[in-house]
Please model this.
Amino acid sequence: MSGQRTPAWGTLPGALPALLTGTPAEAETEVLVVGGGLVGLTAALVCRHHGLAVTVVEKRATTSPQPKARRFHVRSMEIFRELGLAQVVHEAARDLAGHDRMAAGRTLAAAGLLPLWRPSGPGGPEVEPSPEPPCLIAQDTLEPVLREAAVAAGATVRFGAELTAFEQRPAEGEVVATLLDRTDGRRERLRCRHLVAADGARSTVREACGIGRSGRGPVGEPSVSVYFRADLGDVVRGREFNLCQINHPDTPGALASVDGRRRWVFMTGGGTAGRDWPRVLRTALGVPAPDLEVLSALPWRAEMLVADRYTHHRVHLAGDAAHVMPPFAASGANTGIADAHNLGWKLAAVLRGRAAPALLDSYDAERRPAGWFAADQSSRRAQAPRDRATAPDPTLAHPYVLAAGGFQYTEGALAAGPADLADPEPVTEFAPAGRVGTRVPHRWLDERRIRSTLDLAGPGWALAAGPATRVPDRLTTPGPYTMDLPVHRIEADFLAPDQLLLLRPDQVVAWRGTDPATATAALAGLLAGSRAAPGVGERTG
Model:
């Protein structure tokens, strides 16, 4: 490959040499996902959910050996619910079930549990934000679950395979990737229709595309995460926690529970050079811990950076490749999972000829502002847990807004009218009302509390109809992208009796109004790649 056909080609920075000798083997897939972490594996699962052929390549030999992300918000669990995996994930997380409290003290031995946070005011205790509870599960436990599920769903998942170069071919509508098998040195080419870059914060794909990043940059001081084993089950019994703030003057930091008994991560300031980690840890724990074993000490520094573009022709960034943020809101992995969910249905609609290619422009229009919002909120939550509990910042987003995907898209695959734009979703309170550009509010639809309003859409579109609407059980959109639209009659406090809500495959409200013909015209316009259609945005109630 010469690299002269289009500037969207590159030999990836830091990659092993990929000079071709002879003609390498060549294969095809619809979507190539680069990166086999949480976001890459979720992207593969979403693609298979929508019937796409997908290949995942990951240069590492196996999934992450580090706990890393541990808290998965209700919106991530709703996505796993749609994929049929929520119960599997909850089962894998059983060791940390109930470990949802925060603690603080001079040492772990002296720490006490902090008051359990309860919402007040709008979105208060009476509101159940989701059909799925949040989940505490270490990344090194979750990734194998997702890998196994992706393979079972029909994805090709290749660990030990490195992307070394790629070329975008606009005329042919494809990307040609060069892969290196790191076990036997074999090189091959893989043709795909789209490439999803989920290759992490130092994304070589992002660099090869020439995409810059903007944001605050480093946030706070350098830190170290010390991953260790010690049987502390007796020490924490009756005080099980998610995160414990350690206030010892010699070893201040935070202790994160990985499995609630034997695996832990201690996060503290400073570097790694010359530090006696067993002594530091025993001081922070306040107990001898004779079986303590340090597994790793990884230096890091929190950053807030968001890619200036999420899409470059047929390459799309997701997860840390698109945004990095401090861990203080546990939003990094969750935001990446939402990226994959948003992108997957759009790729499927375009590749299956059910929508115009312009639909994919909405990925950047929607997810880049969402990534910036999550990164900004995470950066502003730099207070210690005790300080946040006693003196919360009233300008911060309500925790449920972050956890339940409450960010409102204002541009993208939406058909909003003037009345919708005049009624934005609040941020400092959790008050979902079925506004355009937001995830449809959760309400149970049956007495057994099995079926949620979130189950109405996905993997296809749906129309939620109030009980007084006059609309058939199924509508058909006008061409050129004809689609049957199922209608679900429901009773919910956020839906007026004569109102209709057009729900996208990712459960986002795309339009609301009262006229069925306007609903199908709105959908036809969105599938054709327009942001609005004649009459779209009409709304009552």
About this structure: The chain has a mean pLDDT of 90. The two ends are 59 Å apart (CA to CA). The CA atoms of residues 243 and 299 lie 19 Å apart.
